[in-house]
Design goal:
Blueprint (H helix, E strand, L loop, with lengths): L1 H8 L15 H10 L8 H26 L10 E4 L1 H21 L11 H6 L1 H19 L4 E4 L12 E5 H11 L3 H20 L3 H24 L3 H13 L7 H4 L3 H32 L3 H13 L3 H10 L1 H22 L1 H4 L12 H5 L1 H10 L7
Parallel strand pairs: 1-3
Antiparallel strand pairs: 2-3
Helix pairs in contact: 2-4, 2-6, 3-8, 3-12, 8-12, 9-10, 9-12, 12-15
């Protein structure tokens, strides 16, 4: 399987006469794998771990169902133990699907001669972009513990998501934090299984995210039109950044138009509440179920906050720092709503996209409570 995926990744080089693709996926994979070669699962260990995590998922499903009041439309049987390279390969496939609309917008495809845009988007820029994605995937492969993978922008019908557990990272955390393995893995499984309930019990959520992603690519197509104008187009991005000087936000948001920024914030708010609700369920169920819950929660929280200076720099450059902070805000939002109005009220999040909070409401949960309490009819975001 891994060798086949590697061969597929090498078929990304453009034929003579064709414009180079924006991303060389062979290069992306090579860089990401080079950072994780020490990670490996042997065949016998892999098969045993597949069965082990499937049993944990089977145990977690009725627990999450009892707390959330939701039911899955099918069974969660696509459960896999991964090493880091497995995770890289699985996510490269997903990234390819996500970036297909960008490849369709490749500005070099319309070039007939040497222009400024050719210099900007030529082989050098392909190398830089591919390297950035490769380093990002390589870094994440060393940190991610579990993942619920529901293909976005995929073709229907969808049979359900997959659950991945990255065993080398799980083992590393258990050793570093001196955690009881069985308890920690069940705690982690509760989180990933809750994601399955969020998306599979509420199909509108995937459709809503797909709609936002498609709109985001429409904005990107407009930006590429700017780039086709050469230096005049670049000046438009510079003007955007200057108009945002002194305001809060990541560097990514600096070059966005107000419309792009509003959509970006909406996407961030949605993912914040998705992650925050999963953390809430993981802790609410785990607290009464797992004997060592308090130790696990305390030590794991400390790990999340204690990063090296290099990790802090990487997070700021990639925008991951903003993402992690918003996930913490999402959990605080759900906890506040449950504490003030109960879990049944908090479950109204999943009635439809009109019930999702904005980033302002995530930071000020009482505003969401007031809006939902007085809402008579669905109102689109």
């Amino acid at each position: 399987m891994r060798e086949q995926q590697a061969r597929q990744a090498t078929r990304e080089v453009a034929s003579p006469g064709e414009p180079p693709p924006l991303i060389n996926w062979s290069q992306v994979r090579s860089i990401a794998v080079s950072l994780n070669r020490e990670s490996s699962l042997e065949g016998a260990d892999r098969d045993g771990l597949h069965a082990y995590y499937r049993e944990l998922v089977e145990r977690a499903v009725p627990l999450v169902a009892a707390y959330t009041g939701d039911e899955l439309p099918g069974t969660l049987d696509r459960v896999y133990a991964f090493d880091r390279i497995d995770w890289i390969d699985a996510n490269i496939d997903g990234f390819k699907d996500m970036f297909k609309p960008l490849e369709a917008l490749n500005p070099l495809g319309e070039q007939r001669g040497p222009r400024t845009i050719s210099l900007l988007w030529g082989g050098l820029n392909q190398t830089v972009l591919s390297a950035e994605i490769g380093f990002l995937l390589g870094y994440l492969a060393r940190r991610v513990l579990g993942q619920y993978d529901l293909a976005l922008l995929g073709r229907e019908p969808l049979t359900g998501g997959k659950l991945y557990f990255v065993q080398p990272n799980i083992t590393s955390v258990e050793r570093a934090l001196r955690l009881p393995g069985e308890d920690f893995r069940l705690w982690l499984t509760l989180h990933e299984v809750t994601h399955a309930f969020e998306f599979e019990s509420h199909p509108w959520l995937r459709q809503h995210l797909n709609g936002m992603i498609e709109r985001y690519f429409e904005f990107l197509s407009q930006d590429i039109e700017h780039l086709k104008r050469g230096m005049d187009g670049l000046r438009a991005f510079w003007d955007r950044a200057r108009s945002r000087e002194g305001t809060n936000g990541s560097w990514i948001e600096l070059v966005m138009t107000p419309e792009q920024r509003a959509l970006f914030n909406q996407m961030q708010a949605t993912m914040s509440v998705v992650e925050g609700y999963s953390n809430h369920v993981m802790n609410a169920v785990g607290k009464d179920l797992i004997p060592s819950y308090e130790v696990i929660a305390r030590r794991f929280e400390r790990r999340q906050r204690q990063r090296t200076p290099a990790e802090h720099l990487f997070a700021r450059l990639t925008g991951l720092d903003i993402k992690m902070e918003q996930y913490r805000q999402g959990e605080a939002f759900v906890n506040h709503v449950v504490r003030e109005r109960g879990h049944d009220f908090a479950r109204r999040l999943w009635e439809g996209p009109w019930m999702l909070p904005t980033m302002d409401e995530i930071r000020n949960p009482d505003r969401w409570i007031e809006r939902v309490s007085t809402a008579q009819h669905p109102a689109p975001l």
